[in-house]
C-alpha cells in the first residue's frame, strides 16, 4: 500500500459505516417507509444497498419509484428515523480512541455525510463524538438532490479550504459514493472495508487506499 502524503492535515469522515454502525436503524426505517407505500419488504438484508447513498436516489434506483413516490417514501422514512431510528446505532469499537489520537497528532477532523445534518449532529452529540470535529457537513433536510460531492465541498468550505483539490486533505468512507464524491472534488480517498461496501467495491471505484479495520486505519494515519 502506498504511503499517505507526509503533510496530510485534514481528515473528512463519512458517518454511516465509517464512524457508526447504523444498519439496524436505517433498515428498519426503510422497511417502515415501504410499508407506508404499500410495498412491504420483510427481509431487511435485501435493503442493505440503502445504507450510504442519498435516500431519494435509493428509493428510485432500488425500488423503481418515480420521483414523487420516492419523495413520499423519504418523508415516511424520516418520520420514524427522527424519533426512533437515529439511535438504533452504535459507534464502531476503537473509533473514539482513534479520533482522540488523531487530534493529539495534529489532524483537523470533519464529517461529510449524506445524512441530514440535523440528525448527524444529534447522533454525534449522543455518542459524545462532537468534540472531535471542527466541522460537520450533512444534507439540508428540506433540499432534495444533494450529492456526496456537495457534502464534501460543504465540509471543505467550513474548514476554510478550497472546494476543489484542497491541500493536505483526505476523505475516509466505506462506499463507492465516498470514493466518487471525493474524486469529483479531487480529494484522495481512504476506503474502509469494515462498513457496508460489497466485496471489491472500494477497489473497483478507485479508492486510493483500502483498510480492513479501525485498527489498520489508525496504523495508516498515525
Automatic annotation (TrEMBL):
GO cellular component: cytosol
Key words of the record: Hydrolase
GO molecular function, one term: protein tyrosine kinase activity
Claim: Hydrolase is one of the keywords in the record: yes
Keyword Thylakoid: no
Pfam families, sorted: HAD_2
Entry protein name: HAD hydrolase, family IA, variant 1
